[in-house]
User: What shape does this take?
Amino acid sequence: MIRARRIGITAVALLAMAGAAPAAAGAAPARQPSAARPFTAAGDSDTGLPPGWRVTGSGAARQLEWHSESAVPMGDARVEFYAGDRLLGHPRPGGDGRTFRLGLDDVPARGLKDLQVRAAGRRLDAQGSSGAAHAPGRGALTAARPPAPLPAGKVDPGKPGPYRTTSGEYQLKPVRLPGFAAPVEMRAVVVSPQGATGRRPLALFLHGRHAPCYKPHSDEVGGEWPCPAGMLPIPSHRGYLQDQKLLASQGYVTVSISANGINGQDWAAEDGGAQARSSLVRQHLARWAEWAAQPASAPDAVRRGPRADLSRVLLVGHSRGGEGVNRAAMDSLYPPPADQDGYHGRTRWHISGTVLIGPTVFGQNPVADVPSTTILPGCDGDVSDLQGEVYVDGTRGVSRGTALHSAVYVVGADHNFFNTEWTPGKAQAPAEDDFYDDPDQRDAVCSPGTATRLTADQQHRAGATYIAAVARLFVAGDDRVRPLLDGTGVRAPSADPARVLTHAVGARRAGGVLPDGPVTVTGAGRLCSAVDPSPSAACLPENTPGGSPHFAQWETERESGRRAVALRWSAAGSAVRIRPGSPVSLKDAEQLALRVFVPPNTTGTQLDVAVTDASGHRAALGRVRVDGLPGTDRTASFWAREVRVPLTAAVRGKLDLRRITTLELTPRTRAGQAWLMDAWAWRPGTAPVRPATLPRVDIGRLAVKEGDSGVRTYRVPVRVSGHGSGQVRVYVIDPVTYKATDRLVTVRPGGHDIDVPVRVRGNTRYGQDLPNDIVVKAVRGAVVGAHRGGVTVENDDPQPTVTVTPVADRVTEGEPLRWRVNLSAVADSDIGAVFVVRPVTDGPELSTKDVDPKWLEETTGEAADPERPLSALENLYLWVAVPAGEQSAEVSMPTVGDQVKEQPEKVRFQLTDDAGEVHEGAPVLTGTVLDAS
Assistant: This one.
């Protein structure tokens, strides 16, 4: 049923409440709606649901269901149900591509207000299309022109190399992965250089979450795995052949692997399939290690090329594939728990770096000691909040800081066109532009044909060029390529006409001024929170047009320790002073690098930069100019540009660069805004990367029965492996209020430092299963694998039976019909009952003209005209919730009077079962309406 409050079960968090978290998803499917138009299940004004929504089933199968007017493409961003700003959970997609269902284990019926469907921050239910990127309540921006072209870099990695290429495919025995019922394919396409001698570095590509199956010669795609009869697998793994051929021409062995079997089964995975994708990647790498040792055992497609050098591996992941290869890099250094992993062999490879294209980061757990480049598509209509920025920002302060982590923002690129098998006109299966273009509301930046939007060929060429740049830097060690990736401000001509902007952290940067740490801000600025529901605390209030990748939301509505410095001034000269908790060192640096952003489409913001040392000596370092990115209310364009000033003046002024106490920013333009993400002592080059030996944290899930009496205490399963000690932030989510409380915890391998007891008081009252969840994020000197888990308390009491009694079942037209729904026993959860209209068998039936027309439209999405019997409506339901602790509730239906002389007319509703079906003997609501005359 629908849970409002559970008695006697609490997570003893030892912390104060502060956030919100999702309910568990994955209930059994209910009956499909019989029409594609919006439908609702509504009772009275206290429990009515908006058009497109209804509640189906009963008991443990009670579900909240949303039906879209048009198909919602299977993508990488998670579809989420919200009530206002509170995340209810991640629904299961139906087979029709339009219906999504969420089990209502712990959602109060009276809490189903302001229902919304979102994916990566955009509303899916606020438009008549398939998932246009749209942020609720945010006005449009006036688009700017494309940024001016940057100077050309010293080298252009987009130029083909000297080798001809050869390609082929291999298909091995499928593998079993934990949590997935069906085996997952081991299939890949290989592109290798011809004539290359010696062992060659290996680049492995992993595609993202796309529909796994399609029906030839039609527009039909499917999300099931294995593919049903009449459907074929979509060859998403063949979508990177252009990138593979460019790398192969430069001497790399490349392989792109298929993951349809994961895409078709990951909807219920707590981590969105990240661990499964990591296991699949490492299964393939293990085969390549075997084939490198014994070439004769390799498939023909592998034998055509040179042996792969497994000490030099680049992983390239697109969307959820990006999160998958990030997890594979983590698991290669810090092995996961064996029962969660689908690969149990030795690690016989070294990951030199990763490329993450429009990636998801559900766990927000980047690997700090593996170099990475994240490509952010400026017109991403799938992972539209550009949450992949966390792969840069989230590494700061976690480990040694020597690995370069860069972000590459591609203006005008969408999510899909980096893969030709997801690109219309190139794909074998149905494909589309993920940035929805409404002809009536054209987007000034991202609609096709605008000055800033790239064509599919332009976008893919830019992607291939920057993937090759990453390979040349991280794998080949060519530092001449670094300025293309690290915020220096040069371009690769092969990517033209794309406008590509970059910034970075790590490498030879040091002495960071980080707002996340102990910092004091004075003057025309304030410390702001990246994720906070309070407008006064948030860096970007909810009504800001557009969004920021730096402030992408995680599992809670408020986060501790994610901050920036917000500047706002009304006149030039309004200085902002940022004082770290302890002095920072700029010694041996050439420049001070700052990551700063200003509102989209603004130009010419100028800031003077100065520093002061511990003795009070001050030096003005110079002036920087920051321009905004092209943006609208549908883009995440509040993104930091990297700017640098030389430290010459500080050296000349004899400042003690080992003890800098204050960073000062003074606007030299009129009224404006800016946000500082961080500042670093910068030197050119990249440093040797030696991964630290760190502890790894994985959260598990324990399911326990409630019992009939007594109190038992259970603990959230937590495993800490690896070496050393580190800090993580633990959020404990209250199962009743959905609020979270957090604290820093120092963890050590084998320890029980994260100790979250859950007290369970047994009783004999029915209630819903209750998850007591925690989420964990690495802060310093640690890595986190499975970031979410908890103790789920399972109900073991029978559901009360439902009976009905009339309150006013024979009324004069204009009066409401009323019934009382009774339970056989009090429950600890709200108990919902759904009654569906049935034909009347003993006289005239009420028609659509006999009920309140507004109620009818809100309840069914249909108008009263043309007049027809109520039983002819396909989506007319009455829904009532009996609150927890009570034994009955009323349900009503409003009628209207007219001037027509009529015989008594009747209506009949009957209770539905767990699957939304009606069975003989189920309770019935009957009513009679008499003529007023």
Notes: The radius of gyration is 30 Å. The chain has nine helices and 50 strands. Residues 1-47, 128-141 have pLDDT under 50 and may be disordered. Residues 312 and 478 are 14 Å apart (CA to CA).
